[in-house]
Amino acid sequence: MTRLAQAIVVGLGNGSIYALLALGFVIIYKATSVISFAQPSIMVAGAMLTYLFGHVVGLGFFPALALAAAATAVLALVVERTALRPMVGKPVFVVAIITIGVDVVIRVVVNRFIGLDVRPVDNPWGLSTTTFGGVIVQQRHIAMLLTTAVLVAALSLFFKYSRVGLAMRAAALDQETAQAQGVSVGMVFALSWAIAGALAAVAGAFVGTGTGIEGSTWTVALKALPAIILGGLDSVPGAVVGGILIGVVEALVATYQGSYFPWLGANFSVVSPYLVMLLVLLVRPYGLFGTPEVERV
Amino acid sequence: MATTRWRMLAILMLVLSLVATACGGGDDDADTDGDGGDGGGSAVGVTDDPCPNAVNADNGCIYLGIISDLTEGPFRALAVPLTDAQKAFWARVNNDGGIGGYDIDVETHIKDNKYIPETHKQVFEEIRGDVLGLAQTLGSPQTAAIIQDLRDDSIVAAPASWTSAWEFEDVIIESGTNYCMEMANAVDWYAEEQAAPTKVMAIHYPGDYGDDAAAGARLAAERIGAEFVDHPTQPGQENQSGAVAAIVQEKPDLVVVTTGPTELATIVGGAASQGFTGKVIGSSPTWNPALLQTAAAPALKAMYFQAGPWGPWGTESAGHAALREAFPDTTPNDGYVAGWVWQYPLKAALEKAVEDGNLTREGLLEAVKTLETVDYEGMLPEEAGNYAGEPADAVFRQSVVSQVDDTQPTGVNVVADFFTGPTAEGMAFDKPCFEA
Amino acid sequence: MSATTHAPELGELGGRRVRGRPELYTSYRQDQALLNTAPKRAGVTALFLAGVVLPFLVGNDMVLLLATAAAAAIGAIGLNIVTGMAGQVSLGHAFFVGVGAFTAATLAGDPDSSRHIGFGLDMLLWLPGAAVVAGAFGALVSPLAVRLRGLYLAIVTLGLVFLGEHAFKELKDLTGGVGVGRPGPEAVVLGVDLTEPSTLLGLTLTRHVKLYLLMLVLLAVCAVLGRNVGRSALGRAFSAVRDRDIAAAVIGVPLTKYKVLAFTISSAFAGVSGALLYTIIGHIEPSSFNLLMSIRFIAMILIGGIATVSGAIMGAVFITMLPRMSQFLVRELPFLSGGQLLDQHQIEAVLYGLLIIGFLVFEPRGLFGVWLRVRNYWKGWPFSY
To answer: Chains with 3 or more CB pairs closer than 8 angstroms to C?
Structure first.
């Protein structure tokens, strides 16, 4: 029982990171109908900036995180303005390939700054733990979960009640109509990228809270892909649920697969999210919360 | 429309062939076959003209190639210092007058393989006709993709990994022991000097790197009568929860880890926070001194030992001192040490080939096959440079063990100097460990 | 897609040629024929001849790249069938390439090896074998496409790549395992090694040149096959499914059947491509068949120009040559490498990304679009407005 609880707790922690990343993908998708493959590199850039503000400049974790998120949002804005704005209305897969080009460029430059060493992200929790009824919980996992909850709540309120949030929802629903109503669709695109960039930065910083970041940290962001599909590409709550679910599934498989299904091979947990995604989609082709496409003949 | 497509293809091919010719003509001239001379010298990759930016303007030039993981690949953090150290190594040789009237150039033909075998093969082909040998070929599957070409052209190459497979290749001149014996020695040492473990667990990447070390640990565990648990893991800090869970559940008293640095810290820190109190030994590429600035530092200090094929950056030897002198202002990293050490046998072979009056690829390979000792300037014992006999006789079985010491430049300090444990001593070694 | 605008309402001529009007088609069959005009015939012949001559003009390294491009082009033609013609975006291509590569390596492998399973078969068997096994996996996976659409399908097929990579890593008897791998298949036909260096009419045919020529011939065969898929009933059904699947179903095109067929055929091409790619490289390692490889194939058909065989070939050549081009640019334009920030290799990598971005921003229709611009300029010359 403790083992089960232990696995779920780890899964919730990692899952909250995946959820933040998935949110970024979904927000960009809703605004522009594009999956941005540049998110992994933007995430590492954010983590690197957190290291810079936190460890080198010596600000505390949260100020460093806020600054890094803001700076990463600006980076995402620049990317959107230079590489993606000219592509409005072009086929989405062409745009997706462009984001891959962007990813290569940012990743190489960030790698240059990461250099040879592991870069520690200073934070208040380290690897300290707290025990709840026999279950050992890493404090940073609690912090991740809380931060994600706060961010998701804030975003929901923003989308629901603010004028800009409303404009973003309108543009996601129908760009032309939104434009006719005076919504600046260009601003919506830019803002979506900025929000996604900031979310990725927070996720990246939290990845680094354990043992720092290095050149290969970007691969974490790929875990968000099954999460967004599982939740439904255009669903904000779906991204959160998908991310958490992927984290938990992964942790459960990591804990139990060795004992029960050893023939699946070592490290099956790493690919298990994709299997779950596959199975769920066979039943629900638009994910758990995605909007089914309405076909008019 | 269909017409135009084909016509367009024609034009494109024409343009590309022009680009291709231009690219081909840029630095390597038409001779890429491997049997002609380059610029009036006597053999491929050897010229009577001085090197570009030569130290000794009167000397000829020997070109050596480097194929490494320089920009995006997973081993970039190791590969970049390796490559820099090798440049410095040969700069020092040149400053001392070169070898037999030749300077050695390793700067002209440096290529990035991005750790992709396909790319490795392609960039190797670009420099194949221009170099006498390779000062570095990084990656096992990558090197495997060109090994037949190396054999065909008798190109001698220094590897950039310690897998036990290299003992079985004539054209590859490895230095130091392999991951397998390194770990067997470390486990033997631990059983002898610290405490005899009853349960040893190996956490490792799959493949020639991790499997090799795990095989060594398993043999040692069997010899000392300890239970052995094998747990392969994947790269990525977020993927280590399974490894941590396995340690917590199995409660081994010794864990050997063969991963990358952040994975090591995640595993050790995570296991310690859940009550693990045993000891941990890591393979050489698993360590990075910056880990001592992370949250896992206390756990690492308390329980970590570092197996290694030779002493770290701060070791006292003529070779180490020369290396430190070459990098006075650099953040120390044991990647530099590895890159530097791997060049000594190549230098010895070049000297021998010059002595034999046969400075060609064949002459160099011949020289390698007769090398029985190499002067490592104290970084390794001379007998480590034995390339003459059968693999089982020539293989170098000694390694060192270090412990965490944050006063040292790379965070570790040797506690057991070169030794061969009984397990490594007894290995038949008729094929690479990971194949057993 | 055709030149029917030249030939309205000529059914009464019943397929006969009209003297002096070579581009006048009097039947659908003529219109859809392969190489139905003199310029096309001349163009393709010239192109093929240029392809044959090319390896003797460039360095060995370039020959190897061209051979790789030719083998990759076969895979791109395959991806074009499922994605370009039938409209099912697949990010799973690397998986099928891998299946083909390992099937071929296993069939061709050394039967005495203690490490890998091998059957020591001839290329005449392993090449079709790679196609069949990869095609079978394609058929197995295709039900997903029946159920899913658009980006959902793309990401799910991407999942296939991850699951496949895991399987490749685990099946060590077949694949050699991570970081180790196994030797690629060898091009031996009826006991003759096609890549053995030899001389012909005084020309030295190195291993690379022979490999390249082999790839060129096989590419030509596959290009004709791919084109034939496009101009047959099969291709028309694919287009119908792509353009409006509901409408296609209404006019009696069975969706499931054609989606399954598209995946099967595409995967078979991928299998052949994989087998050939690793004949060239000589060593297969399981982690090569990853997301990046799938993306490279998608980039090939997008950059080449979607839904055309020649576009796929151009795209494959472009993407394979791209690292070389950025290397070339860095070398020839010294101001690019002047900075302190990045070293030469980093600039090359950055330039690779920038070239992809720049190219697609400039011309989202790909190389095909570039051609349209060029053609339209000269077609109207000197009235280029």
So the answer is: A, B
